[in-house]
Amino acid sequence: MEYIVETKNLTKSFGKEKAVSNLEMKIPKGEIYGFLGPNGAGKTTTIRMLLGLMRPTSGSVQLFGKDMKNNRIDILKNVGSLVENPSYYPHLTAKENLEASRKILHAPKERIDEVLKLVRLHGVRNKKVKGFSLGMKQRLGIAAAMLHQPELLILDEPTNGLDPSGIIEMRELIQSLPKEYGMTVLISSHLLSEIDQMATRVGVVTKGKMIFQDSIETMRKIAQASIQIKVNDNEAAWRSMLANGQKADLGEEHINLQVEDDEQVAASIDYLVQQGFSIYRVQEETRSLENIFLEMTKEEHAE
Amino acid sequence: MIFPLIQSDFLKIKRKGMWLLCLIGPFGVVALQMVNYGVRKDYLFEQMDDRWLYYLLNINTFTPLAIVLGIVILTSFMSSIEDETNAWKQLVALPVSKRSVYLSKFTVISCILFLSSVLLFLFVFGYGLTLGLGEDIPYLRLMEYSFLPFFAALPVLGLQLWVATISKNQAIPVTLGVIGVIFAYSAPLLPDWMIWKWPALSNDWGHAYINALLGIGFGVLLYLLGMVDFKRRDVK
Lengths: 303, 236
Description:
The structure holds 2 protein chains of 2 kinds. Chain A is of the alpha/beta class. Chain A is built from 11 helices and 15 strands. Chain A folds into 2 domains: 3-221, P-loop containing nucleotide triphosphate hydrolases (Rossmann fold, 3-Layer(aba) Sandwich), CATH 3.40.50; 225-286, 2-Layer Sandwich (Alpha-Beta Plaits), CATH 3.30.70. In chain A, the strands form 3 sheets. Chain A has a 6-stranded mixed β-sheet, sandwiched between helices. In chain A, strands 1, 2, 3, 5 and 6 form a 5-stranded antiparallel β-sheet that branches. The mean pLDDT of chain A is 89. Chain B has 9 helices and no strands. Chain B has helices at residues 2-12, 18-45, 51-83, 88-92, 98-131, 139-152, 154-166, 171-185, 208-232. The model of chain B has no long low-confidence stretch (mean pLDDT 94). Chain B: This is ABC-2 family transporter protein.
């Protein structure tokens, strides 16, 4: 598989503290990669290393199959980024701000108007950025990141400070990028709900370690509902079901049934009734992605 | 490669009053002599047979001050433009080497200072003509006192730009700068090896161009040190 971003044993320490440790990130082409983790998990530090702003203490970063250490400028020609709070020059207008980057990126002049329209700032292009709201500044940052139509877009908490309609717009814009321009997007957030609606792949990081990395479907599968059954003798019922070839786990007060469809649930209950168990309760337990995320990050904290 | 960066840096100093500073500096230096000669022209004319030279020496008492002060303000402004919203991270994430980022800042400030020197030359020459200092206009000396202080001040520029770009708090380079201005003001009392003395163009050898050459040499050295250090640092 062709990876746009690949890090190997990526580690960054500040003094004794390891902000990122042995992180292995893999992002295939054309994906929207949701980089998820609680505050202070090392997301921004990782992103800074991906952009060559910080030097890894050990390990390597490869973008487009090239090593960051020796091909920084070459790589960055195809990367657009927005790191943490938006950076801008308050005394310049929106247009001048983009012009300052455009000159360095050698992008055609028309791109400025194009990206300004894309983030709906065209109406205020000649106003000084000083007077912009946080959401507008954030959008200007995204416009700057897209000036040169990069192959990889790295957005660190891009919906910070946006209002609900702004968030929806941003989401639609980001979702359209892989389809329309073949871009790969890395988007970090501490909110799972946000990632859930955009990402096709997820990486969960906590305390500088990657604890989950797979497609969003896999993550959803973990979240799938299970059926809990409570009978008069849970253990006996559980043994009996296993003997019958059904997948089940014994919980403290109930049996957890892993089933794929309703018919199976019916068949299992039918079987238990035939075996003479008294069924007290049958209930569905849904674990939200949020729960899984919390569980994943909690386990790490407990260590 | 470096030109787009320089163009971009010139765009960023728009509306920051740096061009005004470029004009005020040389004008201020000459304006002080306008007051001086306006008040006691006859007395000053009696001080030395070579009236032009005496006029240039008077000018040169304030040129080093103006240059050192100008450098402090310009370097601090320049890095505060990037510090303000931590635009360093956005700038360095563009496909540019950190070395050229630093070189571009150095170049832009040098250009402004050089333009100031050109203006100084024009103002000194222009006001000198109206004073009636004599027929023999010492063009060479005039050039020396206009342009050599700029070259002699390059080490100060190298040092200030270095400190300004790596300091999160601009109070540090400004404090250093104020000390530098005091040094420049008390140049006659300082030993020759101190870089703040050089723009005054006086030394034990009696040749002004030595200061300029030393300035270029140590200016390049301090510039390189600053650049290497800037490149080495992580961008927060």
